[in-house]
Amino acid sequence: MIKVAIYPGTFDPITFGHxxxxxxxxxxxxxxxxxxxxxxxxDYLFDSEERVExxxxxxxxxxxxxxxxxxxxxxxxxxxDLCKKYKSNIILRGLRAVSDFEYEFQLAGMNxxxxxxxxxxxxxxxxxxxxxxxxxxxxxxxxxxxxxxFTTRSTIKLLKRKYE
Length: 164
Description:
The protein is of the alpha/beta class.
């Protein structure tokens, strides 16, 4: 039986921190569904279709990940419903710092209450990528800073275009 994990997030934009979580997840699971949230409660720089394309370009073209092991989708449902749809009982979440833990802990608890068969697995990105956040990447590029250490080439290109 194939072990599938769901990795939900906004990915606005995807960073090397997100990519570290995906790399580590691929060591543990046969397939990862990178699920780009399309919930209206956030102010996104890129719409969901753009974010899906950004993630696909970063993973499949910049980094040459296998399309057999990763699927990128957009979703606007509960993550637990997404797990049911893709026959997964694992939600992957990334942790950068202790400050992330409280929110992630609550989210994992709520998902567990919604479906007791679903486990949340927390993975940390590599040390050099733990400080990266999509918000900071957007702020740096908006101020004309260099973001090569934070995200992929195609993502940088699209970010720069957005802020021109």
